[in-house]
From TrEMBL:
Organism expressing this protein natively: Gallionella capsiferriformans (strain ES-2) (Gallionella ferruginea capsiferriformans (strain ES-2))
Record PTM N6-(pyridoxal phosphate)lysine, positions in chain: 120
GO molecular function (one): threonine synthase activity
Protein name: Threonine synthase
SUPFAM superfamilies tied to this protein: Tryptophan synthase beta subunit-like PLP-dependent enzymes
Length: 482
């Protein structure tokens, strides 16, 4: 299996070759040359597999250059009931991603039982083990540099802690995260984890990461890498739980289901799209946005109007406050019939778009618009008031507490589902991470899993720094042994 770029101008690479890479050299994103197909016999055999065995079955179709026994060992130590057990009440951790049924035909797929209580752990934990494996083989080291406003940074740190050959330098805005989020990251005492609190906003931290990454000489000399959401390894790991959720919600492989996905960077739902392209019987993929509704607008009208940061709202589902979804290009590549030239044309207009009033591209009335229906997407939007209402209704009717992002997915999923299709709503985080909104909705604090009790009291390890790139570079250099 080789990987090609969505812009069609980069040489094909293997899975391990792109594992530590970001964008392709032509600025595109990597995708498999062809999606591997799952036969009916395979689907039947996979139905009863454990999560780790299913992950092996799916991933061995993508990571064809990793020896079978090695890949099997990697997934076996990634997807264990120890790692995906945060002590939350009444979950079946042996399933890794247990399915919770609200009423017959409406389910929540629990993806937040990992160490940081968000679905990002599902992919990041695998990435940590894959990185360690690949670096070991190449006798290489990697220094991961990133900026976070919450979920991604903590998931990366918990995945990379204690890993041979890997160091993490994670920037966060000083004093801008919740006490819980700060404690989650800063209480890690591992020698290879470095938390850096920047006196500024998230964007300042992000700009510093970009400045270091654009200094190609420094980047190469210091073996700097990233783990952002375009990483193919992350997308491929997320395909697995679509299969797992499908098997849990159905009796036979003749049935179809709908998935509802709270979306930001389009990484999670992109994995669902690929699972469907592989042959998983998904009848509907429902994309949910919050007030930042660029993608909802596209799927409803065909117009793609990415907004600038000044038109990106801060909402109570903050991990979806995104107006330029980085993985969307992967879907558009399939939509335009895998025509790299067409993608280059579209994205040259995206990059040039300066106003939010005009669409960067609009497929209404073109062949693409007719093609779009084949991909089975529906979409909708959920606002702060919808979120509060959904959280309240779930709590009052079922005694189930959901976080604000999952609430967005439930609201849009219930609204958009086709009658007759079982609905599987992906849970992207636990309510414990978003205490303020839960208190606003329910007048009470969310339960906190045992593993997170009292973490605010633990000693913290963090370097406070001004938004100064020179200082950051000096810090990184000083913490890499020669
Ligand atoms: C990252 C994240 C999302 C958005 O997922 P994408 O893959 O970026 O679409 C939704 N909810 C939570 C809690 C997240 O952390």
């Amino acid at each position: 299996m080789k990987y090609i770029s969505t812009r069609g101008q980069s040489p094909a690479k293997t899975f391990t070759e792109i594992l530590l890479a970001g964008l392709a050299p032509d600025g595109g994103l990597y995708l498999p040359e062809e999606y591997p197909q799952v036969t009916r016999a395979e689907l039947d055999a996979w139905r009863t597999l454990s999560y780790a065995d299913l992950a092996y079955a799916v991933l061995s179709k993508f990571a064809t250059d990793i020896p079978a026994a090695d890949l099997q060992a990697i997934v076996a130590r990634t997807y264990t009931a120890d790692i995906y057990n945060n002590g939350r009440a009444d979950s079946d951790f042996s399933q890794i991603t247990p399915l919770r049924t609200l009423v017959p035909g409406v389910h929540i797929l629990e993806l937040s039982n990992g160490p940081t209580l968000a679905f990002k752990d599902m992919a990041m934990q695998l990435l940590g083990n894959l990185f360690e494996y690949a670096l070991d083989k190449q006798h290489q080291e990697l220094n991961i540099l990133g900026a976070t406003s919450g979920d991604t940074g903590s998931a990366a740190e918990y995945a990379m802690r204690g890993k041979r050959g890997i160091r993490v330098f994670m920037l966060s805005p000083n004093g801008k995260m919740s006490a819980f989020q700060r404690a989650q990251m800063y209480s890690l005492q591992d020698e290879n984890i470095h938390n850096i609190a920047i006196n500024g906003m998230f964007d300042d931290a992000q700009d510093m990461v970009k400045a270091v990454s654009n200094d190609h000489a420094y980047k190469a000399a210091h073996k700097i890498g990233t783990v952002n959401s375009i990483n193919w390894g992350r997308v491929s790991a997320q395909i697995v739980y679509y299969f797992k959720g499908y098997f849990a919600a159905t009796q036979s492989n003749d049935e179809q289901v709908a998935f509802s996905v709270p979306s930001g960077n389009f990484g999670n739902i992109c994995a669902g799209h690929i699972a469907r392209m592989m042959g998983l019987p998904i009848g509907q993929l429902i994309l949910a946005t919050n007030e930042n509704d660029v993608l909802d607008e596209f799927f409803r009208t065909g117009a793609y109007r990415p907004r600038g940061t000044d038109h990106t709202y801060q909402t109570s589902s903050p991990s979806m406050d995104i107006s330029k979804a980085s993985n969307f290009e992967r879907f558009v590549y399939d939509l335009v019939g895998r025509d790299g030239e067409k993608v280059r044309e579209f994205w040259s207009r995206v990059d040039a778009a300066s106003s939010t009033d005009t669409a960067a591209f609009d497929i209404k009335g073109s062949d693409c618009w007719h093609e779009l229906a084949k991909f089975k997407f529906s979409s909708g939007k959920s606002t702060h008031l919808d979120r509060l209402k959904t959280i309240r209704e779930l709590w009052e009717e079922y005694g189930v507490m959901v976080d604000p992002h999952t609430a967005d997915g439930l609201k849009v999923g219930l609204e958009q589902r086709r009658p007759g299709l079982p609905l599987i709503c992906l849970e992207t985080a636990l309510p414990a991470k978003f205490e303020e909104t839960i208190v606003e909705a329910l007048g009470r604090k969310p339960e906190r899993p045992e593993s997170m009790m009292g973490i605010e009291e633990l000693p913290q390890k963090v370097e406070v720094m001004d938004a100064d790139v020179m200082q950051l570079k000096a810090f990184i250099s000083a913490h890499i042994p020669n």
